[in-house]
Write a structure and sequence with these properties.
Elements lengths: L1 E7 L8 E7 L6 H11 L10 H8 L9 H5 L3 H11 L2 H4 L1
Antiparallel strand pairs: 1-2
């Protein structure tokens, strides 16, 4: 997906306008969004989610800017469970 934006240059750079291209990458699907909401509402357990899927969910940012950790930040046991399951010894050492 591509959007073009026009920005006004600062006064010290002249009054000309210039255009730049900004690429927007959507890194989640409805499945990810639904699963994040189910985790936040305690309708699915962390143990039932495959490790790779949970790792993807940790990096998923929804349109409102929230992430998995934003959604579960009031439940320290759940946050700990996510960290324990997603920890990868080969990457994190």
């Amino acid at each position: 997906m591509y959007f073009g934006y026009i920005f006004r240059a600062h006064e010290n750079l002249h009054e000309e306008a210039y255009q730049t291209e900004i690429y927007l990458v959507s890194s989640f699907t409805f499945y990810h969004w639904r699963l994040l909401n189910m985790i936040a509402n305690k309708k699915v357990s962390i143990a039932s989610i495959p490790k790779l899927t949970l790792q993807e969910l940790c990096f998923t940012q929804l349109p409102d800017g929230s992430t998995l950790l934003h959604m579960i930040n009031n439940n320290s046991d759940l946050v700990n469970e996510v960290f324990v399951k997603t920890y990868d010894e080969l990457v994190d050492n």
